Prior knowledge:
The structure is a single chain. The protein is an alpha+beta fold. It has 2 domains: 6-257, no CATH class; 258-366. 41% of the residues lie in helices and 31% in strands. The strands form 2 sheets. It has an 8-stranded antiparallel β-barrel with strand order 1-2-3-4-7-8-9-10. It is elongated.
Amino acid sequence: MRYINLHNIYIRCSILALTLLITQASFCQVMDTGHKIDTLSAADRLAFRTNAVEWLILVPNIGIEYDLGRYNYSRWSIGLNLRYNWQTSHTFKPGAIFNVAEARLELRDYYRIREFTNYITPKKGFLNKLLSPRRETAKHPNTTYYRGAFAAYNKFTVKLGSEGHQGNAIIGGFMWGMMKPLYVFRRGHSLDLEFGVAVGVAYAKYDTFTHDAFLDYYPKTGNKTTILPVINDLRVGFVYRPGKYPITKKYRWRYDVDMNYQSEFDNKLLAKRRQIDSKAFNDSIDNYVRKLFWEKYDSITNKHRIAEDSLRLIGQDEKSLKRLEKENRKAKIQADKEAAKEEERQARRRLIREAAREARKEAEKSNSESEAEEPEKPAATTEEKEEKGGES
């Protein structure tokens, strides 16, 4: 008997059905462009959703959403999503486990792409441009986008390898996605196709365990507490709207449907632009007058500055001349003093030389007189000379 894998058949059929729905999603409805305000009933503001991706991995899930505003230009909604796959029945302890139970609260802001006009201008700054719904062209006019935040409480038991994890987690983060109208039923109910992703940060506290196949139980190996980034949701799902107001008529820009608001907005914007233009014109005149004034003022101050600088230079020249004359006088006086001292020294030297000359003359004269008064001595005899020589 040939074995039939029902799980594989289920997955293949689901993927085929999802593909057919996606290919037909863009041809069913057209976005409403009427200029009128509609008041929504409670059923029109209600929606139910489910995620086909989680059904493919055998995790049942359902969500409910309710619009916070009651007009067709209201764009905020609040929602609650539940998913549960816990303690499935087994005849033995399995080696692979995927049990999860989660409740998630969402807050969404829906919007449509707006093309640039005279009144709708591009945002400035990288982050503003990234988050802004304003674009040069609306490439997908039948698509409604959303962005928002979520908070979730998760209980899990997961074992896909040698070690398993069981515990609780609190998750918070942001989401982004899009919706395309899929089908409108005969009574006005509608079905939409949703794509989205939710990322955030999880604070998890869990126990670790392994699988003992021989004793058929899960021994605990430890416990941990951690904070880590997570992808909380990858969504390819369906949204059912029980009211008679499809998504093609909802989440409009108020400027497009409320003519009074549009007129008031245009008047405010026109007044603001006039104020900006008037301020720019006045600033241009002020700048022109200020420029002329400062040009004249600078030319006059430059002339006065030049005159003051020339007078200052003349005064500095006179001071320098006086200082030079004073220094010259001091140098001349000092030179005269040095010359007088030199003459005095020369005069002293002359007097000393003359005195010394006279003293030598006096000494020579006295010597000559003394030689004349002394008698002549007899010449020494030969014998006396020999005796003197012998003594020497």
